[in-house]
Prior knowledge:
Layout: E1 3-8, H1 28-43, E2 50-53, H2 57-67, E3 74-77, H3 86-96, E4 102-107, H4 111-122, H5 127-135, E5 142-147, E6 153-159
Parallel strand pairs: 1-4, 2-3, 2-4
Antiparallel strand pairs: 1-5, 5-6
Helix pairs in contact: 1-2, 3-4, 4-5
Amino acid sequence: MDRLILLRHAKAESEAPSGDDFDRALAPRGQREARAVGMQLAALGLRPDLALVSPAARTRETWELAELSVAGAAVKFEPALYNAEAGAIRKIAEKAGATARTVMVVAHNPGLQELAVRLMRDGAAPADLLSRAHRHFPPGAVAVFDFDEAGGATVHQLFYPERGL
């Protein structure tokens, strides 16, 4: 794996009709955010070879809307990503990265935020970027990391969806 893109699902509805967290869909704002994130990824030339997506409704929908702008990736719905902790997310991504150069993970906090912060800390990211990710990793947040041959990560991008979409 040369590049890892971490995408937190966009803004979800507060409750699903079923009452099950797994079934929460995107709120209208989240739908707009997911489309905008996809367009921003495409504008930056960030297209995954493989998308690993939590099977929860809000992550599937985030991917489906973002994919409209970054089409072409293989997709794998990975049950272990549902509310996974940072170490588990990294292991899943690294395993997939054995056969894909750019891997995207679409999943949940707090695991994604914790992984982003760990990778930034390990890669000696600028203090302002590290502080920003540590303080806040909102729905629709994206962190992009490049990996060297030894597996060391360097932050490439960190961006959040624009409010008011």
